[in-house]
Amino acid sequence: VVAVAAEEMAALVERLGQVGAQPGGGIVRPVYGPAWVKARDTLAQMMTEAGLDVRVDPVGNVYGRLAGRAGGPVLLTGSHFDTVPFGGAYDGALGVLAGIAALRALRTQAGTPARTVEVVALCEEEGSRFHANFLGTRAIWGQITREDLEELRDHDGVTAAQAMAEAGGDPERLEEARRDDIASFLELHIEQGAKLERRGVDIGVVTGIVGLTQLEVEVTGRADHAGTTAMGDRSDALLAAAEVALAVEAAARDHADPAVGTVGWLQAHPGAANVVAGSARLSVDLRHPEAEKLQALVDDVTERAHSVVAPRGCSAQVTLAKHAPPHPMDEALRARLHQTATRLGYSAMDIPSGAGHDSQTMARFAPTAMLFVPSRDGRSHSPAEYTDPEAAAKGATVLATVLHDLAEG
Ligand SMILES: [Zn+2]
User: Fold this and answer.
1) How far apart are CA 262 and CA 138, in angstroms?
2) d(C-alpha 353, C-alpha 334), whole Å
3) Share of the chain above pLDDT 90, in %
4) Over the chain, what is the mean pLDDT?
5) Which of 167, 208, 356, 401 could form a disulfide with 289 if both were Cys (CB 3.0 to 4.6 A apart)?
6) Do 142 and 91 contact (CB within 8 A), yes or no?
7) Cα 317 to middle of ligand 1, angstroms
8) Degrees (nearest 5) of the Cα angle 127, 197, 211?
9) Residue 326 to residue 45: CA distance in whole angstroms
10) pTM for the whole thing?
11) Pairing state of beta strands 348-353 and 203-209?
12) CA–centroid distance, residue 319 to ligand 1 (Å)
């Protein structure tokens, strides 16, 4: 067992949480801004204090390295250190800090490992400044180009390339951020939901990151006078669209947890108080961690959309707006996380991730797994984010122990 103490996790969270903290609460640390630069330097300092060799790549990913006796491909852990506007101190940050604590514990409790272990603080994941999630991981795997960095602009018109350069990075050396020596990736992250807390479970072993399909439904009815058209004579597109929204909820419930379905946007035309809506459009967002089950949900919702509008004299056209397949996590690493948690006397359960994470990019190129620790009240992307230091330390201890086993095995 390679143990991380709760006090260490609490101190690290407290220290990084001050960077970008707003007077009224919440943390604002968009990529390449002044607070982000300060966080990058704080993390580099923390890694140095943990006895790791530190380097920052041209896009701003910060690495702390514990060189192994045998060399070879690297066992990597970490997460992102940017935040959403007025986010909390745990999303992303906790995975970076747990990685630093885990590597410090490895170095001081187990000595030089056989294989090299590294922690990475990834520069960007949230997409809150540029519409480019996963900048850090995409740079590592060559999934972003110099042109992309010129095209991406923030609200003030600053390009990602300019912002990167101003923060001390170098878009010209983008290629140097690439890695081809990563043996596996492990990411600790807060759950951002309430399943672990509700069940009193210590560790969530992520089965996969959910797939997402977004549909756009266009409902066509007939616009009529709101005063002169009897109720029985209407083909009200807005009410038919409302039926579709309720059908999405019913379908997601019928397909059962972890299936989820959301209608977050609806627009009626012509959109006047005294006109029966002639047409309406709505968004449908459907998610499931298993590809076949996601497709079954999509098919079911499509069928229901057509059948619920018909009795109202309307028709529906369903088009695919967006699709991202599920990203299953590596089975061998998942089994190791379960075994290690059990060995340490912690409870663990399988859990899908409903949110996107750096691990989904990593999983395309290297064996990858994630572990979740409980989020109080399931809160995230909010100043209310909180994970008990004891709970964080359990996660970091599992992480450290698994890294140790992998490094020696
Ligand atoms: Zn995150």
Assistant:
1) 28
2) 14
3) 97
4) 97
5) 208
6) no
7) 35
8) 40
9) 36
10) 0.87
11) parallel
12) 30
